[in-house]
Write a structure and sequence with these properties.
- The chain has 16 helices and ten strands.
- It has helices at about 5-15, 20-25, 35-45, 90-100, 115-120, 135-145, 165-170, 180-185, 190-200, 220-230, 235-245, 255-265, 285-300, 315-320, 330-340, 340-360, and strands at about 65, 70, 75, 105, 125-130, 155, 250-255, 270-275, 305, 325-330.
Amino acid sequence: MSIITCIEDLRVLAQKRVPRMFYDYADSGSWTESTYRANNSDFTNIKFRQRVAVNLENRSLASTMVGQHVSMPVALAPTGLTGMQHADGEILAAQAAERFGVPFTLSTMSICSIEDVAANTSKPFWFQLYVMKDREFINRLIDRAKAANCGALVLTLDLQVLGQRHKDLRNGLSAPPKLTIPNMLNMATKPRWVAGMLGTKRRGFGNIVGHATSVSDMSSLSAWTQQQFDLSLSWADVEWIKQRWGGKLIIKGIMDPEDARLAVESGADALIVSNHGGRQLDGAQSSIAALPAIVDAVGSQIEVHMDGGIRSGQDVLKAVALGAKGVYIGRPFLYGLGALGGPGVTRCLDIIRNELDLTMAFCGLRDLQHVDKKILLPGTF
């Protein structure tokens, strides 16, 4: 195997090793995918100011996110079907994040359950919540997250309706995959993935099957999910969840300064500037383009985080320079997981940390806490 030098190397290897429907699920956007592409390409327009002849000894990337110490201001984003990129994927990713000293966020739509991840880690992880019509199910989910000692609740607000994702429709996405002839032919070319899946019992949505009323198996899950997205979701629901949870609350899906101000009023501890990785409203602006106006509007009142398009440590530094207190990576760690399992997630984090550290040094700084817009070339952001 060739040397892994960057996130793109992990992506290429993951594409070879993960069945097409699950690789495409991770690596695609909605409709024309214009926002999905802009999330990444808009970072390239932002340029650094290179500085020289400054003391670069004893550099530090350490920071905090919602009061939690982090080795660098990067968290693993909540991603659905992570356990379909690699067997027991959520457990492996959570373990890698714990060893690295960064937060792992478990999705409601994970394959491994809250209890699975808690039983296989020793430090608190974060849990991401979708608001469903079945409020009793939501109450139980929150209680399960409390019982697992989750350190923060990440509430996603931008999935009241589902963006049309053409690749998922064409591939007939399901978990576990339907055993159609095209799927079986494709899986036959992925022997590592097949062997892993045969060696685990975790192949369905662990947080839902057996926990939601009337959902006892995968065949009943699809109908339940389609009925459960709550079109009536409001900020009153956010306030209820904040009170019900009682711990750190992070609001995900903010793309407008007005919504950012409402997030502050809701009592949230942090917000995430996010367009769902370009998987919801195609034609929305990129997350990095939306970040500065939101920081200007509320950055002194609430922690502002962001996700979307980050593929390197340089992207992390640009986001921090524009006011993000922390960033989330989804696809990069999924590439690592699909390529190499747990060690691939660690390799992803190593790559990002090294790129972040070196770029900060080239900009003439040795402490991430001193990073601001001054490291960027005026007129490029």
